[in-house]
Fold:
Amino acid sequence: MKKAKLFVLFCAISLPNFSQSLGYEDLAILFSKDNNTGTARYNAMSGAFGALGGDVSAVKINPASGAILNNSLFSASLNSKATEINANYYGNSTNTQEDYFNFSQAGAVFVYSNYSNNNWSKFAFSFNYSMKSNYDTRFIANGNSGFATFTEFPLDTGNPKTQYLNSDSQQFSTTYSGKMEEYNFAISGVYQNDLYLGAAINTYDLKFSQQSFLNEQNNDGSGNTINAKFYQQNNTVGTGFSISAGAIYKASKSLRLGFSYQTPIWFTEINEETNILNNDGFLGDTEIIASNNTTIYDNTTGNYFPVQAYSYRLKTPGKTTASIAYIFGKNGLISADYTIKNYKNLKLSNGDFTTENQFFNNNLRNTYTLNIGTEWRFKSLSLRGGYHYSQSPDANAIESDNIKGYSYGAGYSFGNVKLDVAYQNKTNTQLYNFYPQYNQINAADLKIDNRILTATLSINL
Structure:
């Protein structure tokens, strides 16, 4: 076993198929997903603002929405996310709960009335920062598949070597951390009082890391055991941009129709560093202890921590949103957004990603997302609720894999200052296969429950 430090630089090669960590196919899907978060008002109504406008966060759905406002507005938000994941692995359930606190949104809309042009009566310039995705998540899976994968002790000098073919247990834990931050810069205007038009440039900062730990215990049937500890880590950073355009049409005093399109996000460079490379025959940092051997095998002995660096590009699917809103005077409103997004259009480049891109085309699908929201006003008090449904991009997904959620909240106006709060709950299931190289071992079945509390302070400027 080599004992010197090693740094190997590669450009855009795929993670091995037998990695316990997420591969490029998984990462591309993860980085393409939308998390429906914004101001507390936006969250309480499940983000159904494509035809409604009038909120800083609505710019990320439809850039024409800024011109709906009559006054300039600033808002900032904090949120708390509680994630609960139940992992079922060969009949054994393990529950993991984590709480996270974030500064999640800040933005402003500056409204300018135009008195010199009869066709264009108003313009608005909007800026919004939001946490598009919060990747902070952790789960643990415990159980016994009955199939041993670490079957030999590397330092065994016997001939033949002792075979540890009887599985005692497996424990797997993984931790995601990081976020994708989104910045929207939009301009919008009102044409002949009824048509609102807008366009935006959107930029993205990506930071993501995963740390995975596998502990497997096996025996040889004669009282001897081995305990294998296997660790993988990858760190990813990147930047991207997209362009969006949209329109809102006041069909009547009460009815509004909206339409918007956002181009794919082009991540021009994603850089990743990982320890998933061949280190003395193991793809990661490995320690193995045998009960019948006094020496511990460790492929990181002597500070030998080999690292590979990758650089690649990613194009996510574009998305189209059709919206409708009905306003009951000053009493309340109801709105709905319907978004389609074709994950077959995912594309990795700047390297040989033929297998991954073929996977996207063969195994992913065109998805839809439905958001419905309502708000009712009682003088200075507003009460809100919403429903969210988003299809899984997996063409073979079962119904529970689709994200379903509800939301509610309230707001109170103190004149030029408003305070809003919201609660969101989203649930879905998914599989995580931490032995993808072995068809004999099933994936862990995850049940995911996310609960988000948001508080927003808004000021009329």
Observations:
- The chain has three helices and 23 strands.
- Residues 1-18 have pLDDT under 50 and may be disordered.
- The first strand starts at residue 7 and ends at 9.
